[in-house]
Amino acid sequence: MNAKMQLSLFAIGLSFMFRFNTAQADTADHDGPADLESEAKRIVQQFVGELKPTLQKAMSEGGPAVAIEVCSQRAPAIAQQLSEKTDWQVSRVSLQPRNRNTAMPDAWEREQLKEFDHRQAAGEQPANIHVAQQVGTTFRYMQAQGVEPLCLSCHGEKLAPAVEQALQLHYSGDTATGYRLGQVRGAISLQKPLSAE
User: Fold this and answer.
1) CA angle 50, 127, 34 (to 5 degrees)
2) H/E/C letters for each residue in 94-129?
3) Is 0.90 surpassed by the pTM of this model?
């Protein structure tokens, strides 16, 4: 066998080994942290992609008071639907919750929300603030929700009387007001139990 043929066979062998090892790595990494984080991000996009247009439509058709009523019903329903459709528990949490039944953070979420506030105050944009972490036997992901112009009518520092009335009607004990543009007002929080090896 001449040197040229030996080199060609060697190159074929290397190519095969590379493809085999890459395939093994892809298989081994399936449902690894990177896969779980990507999956969580897709669910967050679905949540926002359904809720935001619904609120925009309610605002344009009936104003903030109608948007509050719609949000009080649709946001928990969307979270429930996504939780049922996926293997994840989906919720929204805040240090100043509007819905005390569904938006109260647990200890881990509370620490992440405090860290989100520090990161935003240091100049990071809320859209870029998230955390992905294995906590015990659960994979957890949180994406910050920033205050956008749309949010200020219902979450801002000065609220119209009709908005205050709607908040009293739909959210007893609301604390989710007083925000300024660009602040973190909460997060979409996901968690997924990890299967035992």
Assistant:
1) 85
2) CCCCCCCCCCCCCHHHHHHHHHHHHHHHCCCCHHHC
3) no
